[in-house]
Amino acid sequence: MAQSDLTIENQSFPSFRADLNDALTALNTTQSGTSRPSSAVAGTQWLDTTTATTPTLKFFDGTDDISLGVLNYSTNTITYTLSDGSVATAKIADDAITTAKIVDDAVTTAKILDANVTLAKLSATGTKDATTFLRGDNTFAEAGGGKVLQVVQTTLTTLLSTTSASFVEASGFNVAITPSSTSSKILVMVTTNTKNTAGDGKTNVTLARGASVLQANGFAFHSQASGATYSFSSSSAFNYLDSPNTTSATTYKVYFLGETGTANLNFNNAVGTITAMEIGA
User: Fold this and answer.
1) Rounded to an integer, what distance in angstroms lies between the CA atom of residue 110 and that of residue 84?
2) What are phi and psi of 119, to 5 degrees?
3) 112, exposed or middle or buried, with CB in 10 Å at 0-12, 13-18, 19+?
4) If you average pLDDT over residues 125-144, what whole number do you get?
5) Would you tell me which of 19, 127, 173, 188 could form a disulfide with 254, CB atoms 3.0–4.6 Å apart?
6) What ranges do the domains of the chain cover?
């Protein structure tokens, strides 16, 4: 490998031949050297051998050297130097660039335009829509268990009374809900204002699904101390988590009884509520 000024002077034949051979050798080795040849003019190509096994092919534009590509003698390959925007997408055949052609971390988020990766471009399995999200196992799925799917509520201000020592239905104190899945649970919450007229009287309140009482003994609320000459009302609340295993309309009802005396719900026409929440499995 060599460089030459490519100038042949008027001289004797032996010297002429030597100059000519030097010029031909330089041309044959692409003006190889560790710096630009002194004879370079605009349009000169030369091989920069600063790195011996991976020299760089350069083009002199009259002012600067432009790198055209790097040769690798070990792998017998050349890596071309391309400026940004020099290869238009129209010049790239479909499927020409595979993942094997892209080095790790070569495509950064800064290189991807906003909204350029659509759901259709994702290979993940499962249903791709507004109700699902992409999990770490490359699967689209709905949000996990424990989410609230629906809430329904009934309010009642009617005073309800009974002297029955067995559970009776609290008329109108109910709520209906239709579960969206048989695996859903229903959380039922009841608030009311209770009072019992008897000494040491208790008002027991429970919950039923349809006609089936869910808590046999219910929740007992005291309204009067034993031997007392007065009674008081109390704000009372309870909740129950049910597994109805159905997608049919289901009604939850409040039942109550008075162990002694008269049991009252929503005493003094206070607001009572029964709320049903469907919890996804």
Assistant:
1) 14
2) -60, -35
3) exposed
4) 79
5) 173
6) 13-80, 148-279
Burial (0-12, 13-18, 19+ Cβ within 10 Å), 200:
middle
Give pLDDT tens digits for 224-245: 555 555 556 778 899 999 999 9
Give dist(CA 170, CA 161) in Å, integer. Answer: 8
For the chain, counts of helices (H) and of strands (E): 1, 17
**What gap in Å lies between CA 274 and CA 208, rounded to an integer?**
12
Closest CA to 249 of 175, 158, 168, 140: 175
> What's the rounded Cα separation, in Å, for the pair 67 and 187?
72
Residue 161 has pLDDT above 80, yes or no: yes
Condensed to tens digits (0 to 9), the pLDDT of residues 93-116 reads: 877 788 787 888 888 888 888 878
Specify which residues 236 forms β-bridges with: 192
Alpha-carbon span 65 to 267, nearest angstrom: 96
State the sign of the Cα–Cα–Cα–Cα dihedral 48, 50, 53, 54: negative
Q: Over the stretch 244-268, which tens digit does the pLDDT of each residue have?
A: 999 999 999 999 998 888 899 998 8
CA distances from 14 to 9, 107, 265 (A): 12, 60, 127
Q: 1 is written with which tokens? A: 């490998």
Check: CB of residue 52 under 8 Å from CB of residue 39.
no
How far apart are alpha carbons 161 and 263 in whole angstroms? 6
CATH of 148-279 given 1.10.220.30, 3.30.420.40, 2.60.120.760, 3.40.50.1820: 2.60.120.760
| Contact indicator for 279, 193 with CB cutoff of 8 Å | no
